[in-house]
Each structure stands twice: as structure tokens, then as C-alpha cells.
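Quick one:
INPUT:
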């Protein structure tokens, strides 16, 4: 049983692309790297805008663990947490091109399980055998 763990702290969105690419490199993803990048980008962006009110002085914590082929990523911000969130099963056609309001939906499409726990987003994703 192989286990890879790591963590990173973001302050704002500067360097997000490089740090996420570093995570992908540590995880040694060959396939599904786009999907994993996407869910991390969306979760960190959500944490920054909604949880931390776009305040770059507030930290965003990202922890990950890959055990066998199960990836767990936890993103935690400094906000008050989720309240009465209704995850949409699909995006309304009139909102399809909106620049916001789709992050959690996108994450739910690319994960096996999405848990909103206070000010944390917990994402579980089974990876292909040849990761």
C-alpha cells in the first residue's frame, strides 16, 4: 500500500498554477491530471473569493493524500463555513457562460464524493490504475 501525503498554504491566488502543478508532480499523475488540477483550482478559488472574502492575508490550507488509487483533497479557508448550500445537478442554460456560481458544481462532476464541512471542502476521487 503506497501513501503520498502533502500540504501547501496559499495566500491569495498568486502562484496557484505553479503550486497546483507541484502537487500534480508529487502525486506523479500521468492520467487525470487535468481533472485533479481543475478540482483543486476551483476549490482554492472558492475558498479565496467566498471564504476569505478575497483577502490575500488570510491563509487557505490544502492537504492531500493519495492512498492506493484514492485521492483525498481538503481545502480549508478562514470563512464562516457553508450555509444552506444547494448543489445543482446541472447548470441552467441561461447561466452556462457565467463566470461565477459553478465551482462547486464543477467539483462535484469530477469527484466521487464532495463534502462541505464548515469552512472545508473535502473531495474524494478514485484515480485510474495507471495514474
Amino acid at each position: 500500500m503506497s501513501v503520498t501525503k502533502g500540504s501547501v498554504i496559499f495566500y491569495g491566488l498568486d502562484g496557484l498554477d505553479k503550486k497546483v502543478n507541484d502537487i500534480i508532480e508529487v502525486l506523479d499523475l500521468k492520467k487525470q491530471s487535468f481533472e485533479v488540477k481543475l478540482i483543486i483550482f476551483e476549490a482554492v478559488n472558492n475558498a479565496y473569493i467566498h471564504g476569505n472574502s478575497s483577502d490575500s492575508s488570510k491563509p487557505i490550507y490544502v492537504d492531500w493524500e493519495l492512498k492506493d488509487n484514492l485521492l483525498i483533497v481538503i481545502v480549508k479557508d478562514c470563512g464562516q463555513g457553508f450555509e444552506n448550500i444547494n448543489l445543482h445537478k446541472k447548470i441552467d442554460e441561461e447561466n452556462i457562460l457565467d463566470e461565477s456560481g459553478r465551482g462547486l458544481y464543477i467539483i462535484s462532476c469530477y469527484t466521487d464524493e464532495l463534502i462541505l464541512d464548515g469552512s472545508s471542502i473535502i473531495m474524494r476521487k478514485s484515480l485510474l490504475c495507471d495514474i
